[in-house]
Amino acid sequence: FYVAAAERQGVSSDALRGTVQNDILKEYMAQHAWVYPVEPALKIIVDMFEWCAEHAPLWNTISISGYHIREAGATAAQELAFTLANGFTYVERGVARGLNVDAFAPRLSFFWDIHNDFFEEIAKLRAARRIWARHLRERFRAKHPRSWMMRFHSQTAGVTLTAQQPTNNVVRVAYQALAAVLGGTQSLHTNSLDETLALPTEEAVRLALRTQQIIAHETGVADVIDPLGGSYYLESLTDQLEREAEALFAEIHSVGGVVKGIESGWFQRQIARSAAEFQRDVEAGRRVIVGMNDFVSEDDHPVEILKVSTDAEGLQRRRLARLRAERDAALVSERLEALRQAALGERNVIGPMLDCARAYCTLYEIRHALERVYGAYREPVFF
User: Fold this and answer.
1) Rounded to whole angstroms, how far apart are CA atoms 124 and 239?
2) d(CA 214, CA 180)
3) Rounded-to-integer distance, Cα 141 and Cα 144, Å
4) What confidence tens digit (pLDDT) does each residue in 139-183 have?
5) Any idea what the Cα angle at residue 187 is, between residues 207 and 69, rounded to 5°?
6) Strand pairing partners for 110?
7) Beta-carbon neighbour count of residue 38 at 10 Å?
């Protein structure tokens, strides 16, 4: 849809910049938003690598996400290892397709969760860059330095925000943001103090934005690359997390790799166990959450929350009905059938999908055309 909209404005796909998340493996592990079974979903992702390498070379074809894995309850080491294992799986599938690793690896990007343990989060980001570079060089024989680089976005940890004493979240977000910067993030999202209660208000969003602007422009920390490098503690912690990640890679290999691990529920059980252990520690008071299980206050004033009108839904429904009435219905059917045939023939589906967008097919219609071929994923019961 983005490419089709750009074309209507006279902008060709080879000039477009941006990022699409496109990371299905973390959905099966943690986020649980999927449509197709694992193998066809992976095929579509590699189709995107292939199409963008030729037609949109400036586009980041995937944002390999540890954020959702961590938010589901994983530890820092698990977030590190599971996310990188997903990344390696995408590279393996691209290479298996016959793509040159240096043709698509430079456009892979990552997305990390920045949790409460300040030094651990910095070390996690440092370890991630080292592991990625080493594996791309040694395991996948990438020649181009840009293939070795881990480009990543970070977001402060939504799961650490509390509904109790929500103004405390300003402090949490500030030091998580600082950890992200000290760990070398290229871009950053700071959560708003009220996001555990509702969509954020304009004032809360502005404060979150000002938090990272103060870090960027007033503290000087963004002027130095790896400012904590050489610290005995940080270097030791980085080495430790790297060892833990490599040990988890060995476990993943022993269960048959990422896809087999997902299909057997191994990843889901690992994350669930870590989440349960964290919750037990909170409930037993072994882990202090300020304002929630300690340092509580009877005088906990609620903050103003955003109320969203339902008018937007009605407006969008009317716009969609008008679109369906005015578009070329025969062309829509033709394009959807061409997409279905491409899927049946195991051809790259991105071009036919783009043709559907040009004809004003809806997202659901495109999804349904592929679902008729690939089927729908139903997660087995693992617990």
Assistant:
1) 9
2) 14
3) 9
4) 999 999 999 999 999 999 999 999 999 999 999 999 999 999 999
5) 95
6) 64, 152
7) 18
Q: Which residues of 365-379 are buried (b: 16+ CB within 10 A; e: fewer)?
A: bbeebbbebbeebee
DSSP H or E run through 238: helix 232-254
d(CA 88, CA 338): 32
**125 in Cβ contact with 183 (< 8 Å):** yes
Predicted confidence (pLDDT) per residue in 328-364, tens digit: 999 999 999 999 999 999 999 999 999 999 999 999 9
Residue 329: burial class (beta carbons within 10 Å; 0-12, 13-18, 19+): exposed
Please give the class, per CATH, of domain 2-283.
Answer: alpha beta
Whether pLDDT at 383 is above 70: no
Rounded to 5 degrees, what are φ and ψ at 134? Answer: -65, -45
Q: Pull the structure tokens for residue 211.
A: 């938090």
Q: What is the DSSP letter of 225?
A: S
Grade residue 380 by pLDDT with cuts at 50, 70 and 90: confident
Q: d(Cα 315, Cα 326) in Å, to the nearest integer?
A: 17
Where do the domains of the chain lie? Answer: 2-283, 312-374
Enter the tokens of residue 249. 């890679």
pTM greater than 0.85: yes
Q: What is the pLDDT of residues 310-329, one digit of tens each?
A: 898 999 999 999 999 999 99
Nearest to 70 by CA among 182, 188, 159, 195: 159
Exposure string of 222-245, with b = 16+ CB inside 10 Å and e = fewer, is eeeeebbeeeeebeebbeebbebb
